[in-house]
Amino acid sequence: MIPKLKSALPAFVALFALAQPQATIAPNPSTAIAVAPIAANDPAATSLFQGGRSNLQPVSILIKNVGTQPILGIVVLTTATDTGGRTHTSRDVRDSFMSRSHAPVLGPGESLLAIPTGVWVRPQDVGAYAADPGGIRQLQRASDWIRLTSSQATVSIDAIVLASGEVDGPDTTNFMVELEQQKQAAQSVLAAINGPSPTSALEQMAAQRIHEGDWLGKWQHQWAGDYLAASRGGSGANVLSAIQAGLTIPTLFRGASANTK
């Protein structure tokens, strides 16, 4: 008789779902921040990582601004290796240059939880986030990504941007270049909006082909297209404020811990 496997399947699925990745937190690249793993008995873990999401705990970190300057941007990389040896990377960016308020990501003394696939939660907001259906969906997506891609993972701070414009960290993903080109794009799109033939100039920007690493083209394409679409609906001012936020990017320079290649 062929043995029935049906009864063993739920146990296998449960075991797979609860499997924990082996995680390493890379050395902190900047004296402006403190980076710590999330302890399993931390209150945040209890609410954010329950319901089959305990695999997020080893790959989540708490970032604290221990310096005197506001932090305007952070890039966190989670590099995961699956059981077949393939590498997968989640590049998660948080910055103040897309916000109408232009509020810093972290003021001096403030902290932020970073969870792979772009989940950012302030410690004081953990309870509300864990109870919000949208927050739960984001956490579940992050948990599914770790479950499908990772047997081992390394979490690292790739770059941080201070209010002075200093960029710390190895910046292997060229965040500094991305921000510089984002600012150039804001300047060029605003010049087109205020120019003699705004519709024609913006349509050319929106129609351009972009390639990987072409941040200038990406932001021109996105902002020009968004502004044209919003203007037809009478809401161009909303997009205009987002474009103007790009002008708040300071003049950037490499810190002592940045990649000098």
Description:
By secondary structure, the protein is α+β, with helices and mostly antiparallel strands. It folds into two domains: about 20-170, no CATH class; about 175-250, no CATH class. The chain has helices at about 10-20, 45-50, 125-130, 135-150, 175-195, 200-205, 215-230, 235-245; strands at about 20-25, 35, 60-65, 70-80, 85-95, 110-115, 120, 150-160, 165-170, 255. The strands form two sheets. Strands 1, 4, 5, 8, 9 and 10 form a six-stranded mixed beta sheet that branches. Strands 2-3-6-7 form a four-stranded antiparallel beta sheet, with helices on one face. A hairpin with a 3-residue loop joins strand 8 and strand 9. Helix 7 runs antiparallel to helix 8 (about 235-245).
Can you count the beta strands? 10
N-end to C-end Cα span: 65 Å
Largest sheet: 6 strands, mixed
Oligomer: single chain
Number of helices: 8
Q: What structural class results from the helix and strand content?
A: alpha+beta
What is the ordering of alpha helices and beta strands? HEEHEEEEEHHEEHHHHE
Q: Over the alpha carbons, how many angstroms does the gyration radius reach?
A: 21 Å
Q: Would you identify the regions where 5 or more consecutive residues have pLDDT less than 50?
A: 1-18
Q: Shape from CA axes?
A: globular
Helix content: 25-40%
Tell me the number of structural domains: 2
- Arithmetic mean of pLDDT: 89
- The percent range for strand residues is 15-25%
List the helices and strands and how they pair.
Blueprint: H1 9-18, E1 22-25, E2 33-37, H2 43-48, E3 61-65, E4 71-81, E5 87-95, E6 111-115, E7 119-121, H3 126-131, H4 133-149, E8 152-162, E9 166-168, H5 175-193, H6 198-207, H7 215-232, H8 236-245, E10 253-254
Parallel strand pairs: 1-8, 9-10
Antiparallel strand pairs: 2-3, 3-6, 4-5, 4-8, 6-7, 8-9
